[in-house]
Design brief:
Strand content: 5-15%
Number of helices: 22
Number of domains: 2
Structural class: mainly alpha
Distance between the termini: 16 Å
């Protein structure tokens, strides 16, 4: 009976996977792909590659959901999901819809199919070149690696499958491989893709053709993903030497992207902040403070370029809203209407974006402008504004699913600066808080903060209690050398927390927060990598007051931080046992 269930389930899984590849595959039986009939021309392989992107795009809202639900920046909206509420209460079970991994393995199988079958087209279609086949292979390997990267961060140890399932004769009873073994295998494969040099840096020489260059996997996308993986390896590696080597590779890859000249932070004009005794009219003529106040100007262009129009100068890769299977309805339902998730405003306002303590010539408490980018209220409903809003000033919102035409950002330059800062901080901490490295890390973060007019209350404090941007504003703005004043020192632990908070401010609701906290928890609570300790108080998520103590206790258990295996897969796979922490099934 278990065998029969397994066959039927796999057939249905394959049907889901193949429909994402386009109508040309729907003619075959649900549980078979006949190599003799398909994979005969370049057009077949191209359709399969587009199907991989289509499946990714169609799953984007679900991937986002799983990446954010355990962070501390969301809370249930009026029409919340029951399964989300159960997770918030710590009642996580293998039957919860939010612990399904079907979408990842469907995309992975489609990648494996292309990698195994495209050779048939190469042999049968004289116009199909080895060069083009190599490009498709490189793209598929990168997408497959990204899907596994999600899996090992959400479930830890998972089945690692690199062969395609195309009929019922292929063995699918696969046990799990360890998180670190999979991570190392992914890094090795991506390093090979990079050294082979088949992946383009761009797909079009036409500067206006941004969708083509930012909507497909490029060599820069690979470098960003590889840097992200090395950052994780540095945090999870138990050997200090291996951890440090991984962080150094992360910095190297970040520098390659930053130094390429292909990307730039989306800028906007600013006026200087001044003290309260000055008139507002004098703002444009003064530069005697440590951040900028936006008065009559607002970051409309920044918001519109990055979060409305998309494909900005900052973007490395985005899933394009114009694609046929774009899951706009998924994001619209989750975030806008009926809206299952709302921004956790108390955490945003009181923890991440407190107001300045300086007295300004303004009638309101001035805060980092990113608070307004991430939070907005429209018709009485609190919304994640970078997704829901069509204008920074809250004058326009996506009012129906057809109006939701936003790309899904995969990587952008601001995150690359923050990756570099995190890696440099860990290298410095392993070298007695090396001050030159910590200064370099701070400068990388300042690039992002300066663009956002970040206030001093969220800045890095030195051992004396002074803020870096207060003491070294001119040097930072002019990118001139900084010599710390006598007795001043940057503390590595303070810098580590500063980077974590800045990642939350900049990358809010972009599917990063939970993974950022996991890396820090791995370093701090497990004594791995370059930072030891035991403080995991930041590893929490929004929950009801009566569950807070329970959640805090559970979060100290590493097993609790990862999802249980989906019930159906455990029941059908003879080689997949449920994690002991989550019980037996």
């Amino acid at each position: 009976m278990k065998k029969m269930k397994k066959i039927l389930t796999i057939a249905s899984i394959l049907a889901v996977g193949l429909t994402s590849c386009g109508d040309w595959l729907d003619l075959e039986p649900e549980n078979a792909v006949t190599a003799e009939k398909y994979w005969l021309t370049e057009s077949d392989v191209e359709s399969a590659m587009m199907g991989i992107y289509s499946g990714w795009i169609g799953s984007a809202s679900s991937i986002w959901e799983q990446s954010e639900v355990r962070g501390d920046m969301m809370m249930p909206a009026a029409s919340y999901k029951v399964d989300y509420r159960l997770i918030l209460e710590g009642n996580i079970t293998s039957t919860n819809s939010l612990v399904s991994w079907l979408k990842y393995y469907t995309i992975i199988n489609n990648c494996n199919l292309l990698l195994e079958r495209s050779g048939n087209a190469l042999a049968n279609d004289p116009s199909y070149t080895v060069t083009q086949d190599s490009i498709y292979h490189a793209e598929a390997r990168v997408v497959r690696a990204l899907m596994y990267f999600y899996l090992i961060r959400l479930w830890k140890d998972v089945p690692f499958i690199t062969k395609a399932y195309y009929d019922d004769t292929v063995e699918r009873n696969v046990g799990v491989s360890s998180q670190m073994n999979i991570l190392n295998a992914l890094i090795s494969d991506l390093e090979n893709v990079q050294s082979e040099g088949n992946l383009p840096y761009s797909y079009s020489a036409v500067s206006s053709d941004k969708a083509k260059n930012k909507g497909q996997v490029t060599m820069y996308m690979l470098k960003a993903l590889l840097a992200d993986m090395y950052r994780m390896k540095g945090s999870y590696e138990t050997n200090l030497e291996a951890s440090q080597a991984a962080y150094k590779k992360c910095v190297e890859l970040c520098d390659a992207i930053i130094g390429s000249g292909q990307y730039a932070l989306v800028p906007f004009a600013k006026s200087s902040a001044v003290e309260s005794y000055l008139d507002l009219s004098e703002l444009d003529n003064k530069a005697d403070s440590s951040f900028y106040v936006l008065t009559d100007i607002t970051p409309d262009d920044w918001f519109t370029s990055l979060y409305v129009n998309g494909n900005s100068s900052e973007s490395i890769m985005e899933l394009q809203e114009g694609s046929a299977n774009y899951n706009s309805s998924g994001f619209y339902t989750l975030i806008i209407s009926p809206s299952y998730y709302a921004p956790y405003y108390d955490n945003l306002q009181n923890t991440l974006f407190p107001p300045t303590e300086k007295e300004l010539a303004l009638s309101y408490q001035y805060r980092d402008v990113r608070l307004a980018m991430n939070y907005g209220v429209y018709s009485g409903t609190p919304l994640m504004w970078k997704y829901a809003g069509l204008a920074f000033d809250k004058s326009s919102v996506c009012t129906d699913v057809t109006a939701f035409k936003k790309n899904v950002i995969i990587y952008r330059l601001a995150e690359i600066y923050l990756m570099k800062a995190e890696a440099l901080t860990q290298i410095a901490m392993a070298n007695s808080d090396d001050q030159s490295m910590l200064l370099e890390a701070y400068r990388a973060v300042f690039k992002v903060r300066d663009r956002a007019s970040a206030v001093e209350t969220t800045d890095l404090q030195l051992g004396s209690g002074d803020y870096m941007q207060d003491l070294y504003w001119e040097e930072l703005r002019n990118e001139s050398p900084i010599e710390l004043k006598s007795g001043e020192k940057i503390l590595g632990t303070a810098m580590e927390k500063f980077v974590l908070d800045e990642e939350a401010r900049e990358m809010a609701y972009e599917g990063r927060r939970w993974f950022d906290m996991l890396r820090n928890a791995e370093r701090n609570s497990e004594g791995k990598g370059s930072c030891t300790g035991g403080n995991v108080s930041y590893l929490r998520y929004y929950t009801t007051s009566d569950k807070m103590a329970y959640i805090a206790g559970q979060m100290k258990k590493a097993d609790f931080r990862y999802f249980p295996y989906p019930y159906q897969d455990v029941s059908l796979n003879d080689n997949l046992d449920q994690k002991p922490f989550w019980g037996t099934e």
